[in-house]
Design goal:
Blueprint (H helix, E strand, L loop, with lengths): L6 E6 L9 E5 L3 H6 L6 E6 L2 E10 L9 E4 L1 H7 L6 E5 L6 H9 L6 H12 L5 H10 L7 H13 L12 E5 L9 H10 L4 E5 L9 H6 L8 H11 L1 E5 L7 H13 L4 H14 L4 E8 L8 H17 L3 E8 L7 E2 L1 H12 L7 H17 L7 H10 L2 H13 L10 E6 L4 E6 L1 H10 L9 E4 L6 E2 L4 E7 L2 H13 L4 E4 L3
Length: about 500
């Protein structure tokens, strides 16, 4: 291909920008100067039959990039299916249609169905900048999306991707709104429900702001990045699966919204509902149980907030023909002992194996949720929990879990971190509370969830008396540097394990 004034040779920058296409040009690049491109400009790129819109980053000094080349982030490289040296054409893209709707929302106007569709379409087409998306997320924060707007956004997000069809009969699902470290009930619930003969094709996310998501934890034990054909095969064989939803193109705009929500560290009730229910509807679910932990340091902090969110979930679920049940649970402290992928995996395996040292709170929560799902579909005249207990205690759930793992590619026992540091009580007292957010932050600074063996192992619970010098929790890390980083944070601020009667 002959190079023209609008062309540059492509090179792979090797930079992960988490699904955002980014192009890198030198500031003295002829094309960059001639076209008036500047940092954060949206730039169109055409290569053969493929085209994308990417955000421009201007490089002021770099030996790796010449004036004749354009570097591409991993997301841009894969979207164009580029090869080193390919000549691509660059152009100024038309402004995204959704920007006017976002601006209107910032100034307090409502979003109709067409506006929501435009925002979702331009989001997945990468025609909106991070600043545009941040403005949209912020404009919707709090309760600035009403019920009708939430329904419109949920439908637009669901319709933007593919929808799975599992045929006749109930398709069960379970989701937790999050905010509670260690609350890894989903794999246990899936095993119990599938052991009872019901379909529960569970798609899960990786962690957004927590030390582990269900997909992160299950991936310690079995592959989760299955495509749709492999997922269907597992469900056909075993009735259930535990799969990461990122490869299935279900509600694709959601992952891009989450990419912005993560550094902002907030979302709205409306966006939370749209995120959860768009994926449930797209996954082909018919009966969905929503676990909503409520506590002073959980995501949902008060009964009033729980009631408001529950009403919104039920209204949107009804509009999407989903049969929903909201389960309010205790969110005052972490669940189980482990916080982090491998540590949480060890907890849930202990429950499934009926180990006498298994965390009782994790077992009881999982049984409550599995029983509620049975009741939701009208099974056995509200004897759901006793049925769940039977399937767990007789080993059927354990056998089903390992059968699912085998079908997904095999099972591996969770490993253990090489570096550990006990944090001890500075005085004697009764454990009054454990700060979910602070203990979760320590686990993340230790490396979780990207470091699968990292996290926090709790050695006590609220209501337990501890003596001075007794271990409250252990920090687990895969490297000494990450252990030191987590230790510095743990030592610098308020103790996450809060004691009464300190002296």
């Amino acid at each position: 291909m002959k190079k023209d004034v609008h062309s540059l040779a492509l090179t792979r920058a090797g930079i992960d920008t988490y699904r955002q296409p980014v192009v890198y040009m030198r500031e003295d690049c002829d094309l960059c100067r001639a076209e008036g491109f500047s940092a954060l400009t949206k730039v169109g790129i055409v290569l053969g039959e493929r085209s994308i819109v990417a955000a421009l980053n201007v490089v002021t000094a770099a030996d790796w990039l010449s004036r004749e080349d354009a570097g591409l982030s991993e997301a841009a490289w894969q979207a164009l299916n580029a090869q080193d040296g390919d000549l691509a054409t660059f152009f100024h893209p038309e402004p995204a249609q959704a920007t006017s709707s976002i601006r209107a929302k910032v100034y307090g106007q409502r979003l109709d169905a067409a506006a929501c569709q435009a925002i979702v379409s331009d989001t997945i087409g990468h025609r909106l900048s991070d600043l545009d998306l941040a403005a949209f997320i912020t404009a919707c924060a709090g309760n600035r999306l009403d019920i009708d707007e939430t329904i419109a956004l949920t439908r637009a997000m669901k319709e933007a991707g593919q929808t799975l069809d599992w045929g006749q009969g109930p398709v069960l699902d379970k989701h937790c709104v999050g905010g509670l470290p260690g609350n890894r009930t989903t794999p246990i619930v899936v095993a119990i429900v599938a052991a009872a003969g019901f379909r529960i094709p569970k798609t899960s996310s990786r962690a957004i702001t927590s030390p582990a998501g269900t997909a992160d934890t299950v991936e310690v034990m079995t592959p989760v990045a299955l495509d749709l054909a492999a997922m269907r095969r597992v469900v056909d064989l075993e009735g259930g699966c535990l799969v990461w939803g990122g490869k299935l193109d279900l509600s694709p705009a959601d992952d891009l919204f989450v990419r912005i929500e993560r550094p902002l560290d907030f979302d709205s009730d409306g966006q939370l509902v749209a995120s959860v229910l768009s994926k449930k509807a797209a996954a082909g679910s018919s009966h969905v149980l929503i676990d909503m932990p409520v506590g002073p340091t959980a995501k949902i902090r008060s009964p009033e907030a729980a009631r408001s969110l529950s009403q919104r979930l039920l209204a949107v679920g009804d509009a999407l023909n989903l049969k929903l049940l909201i389960h309010h649970s205790d969110g005052s402290a972490p669940v189980g002992r482990g916080i982090g992928p491998a540590l949480e995996a060890r907890d849930l395996l202990a429950v499934l194996r009926r180990d006498k040292h298994a965390p009782l709170d994790l077992r009881e929560r999982a049984l409550d949720l599995a029983g509620a799902l049975f009741d939701l579909i009208g099974d056995d005249a509200h004897r759901g929990r006793s049925k769940a207990v039977e399937l767990l205690d007789n080993g059927a759930a354990e056998r089903k879990f390992f059968a699912i793992c085998d079908a997904q590619g095999g099972f591996s026992e969770p490993g253990a971190a090489a570096h550990r540091l006990p944090i001890v009580a500075s005085s004697s007292g009764l454990v009054r509370a454990i700060d979910n957010r602070r203990i979760g932050k320590i686990a993340k600074l230790a490396g979780a969830p990207n470091r699968k063996l990292a996290g926090v192992l709790l050695m006590t619970k609220p209501g337990v008396r501890v003596d001075q010098g007794e271990t409250l929790y252990e920090i687990h890390a895969e490297t000494p540097g990450e252990l030191a980083w987590a230790k510095d944070f743990a030592m610098a601020g308020p103790e996450p394990v809060i004691l009464e009667n300190q002296s």
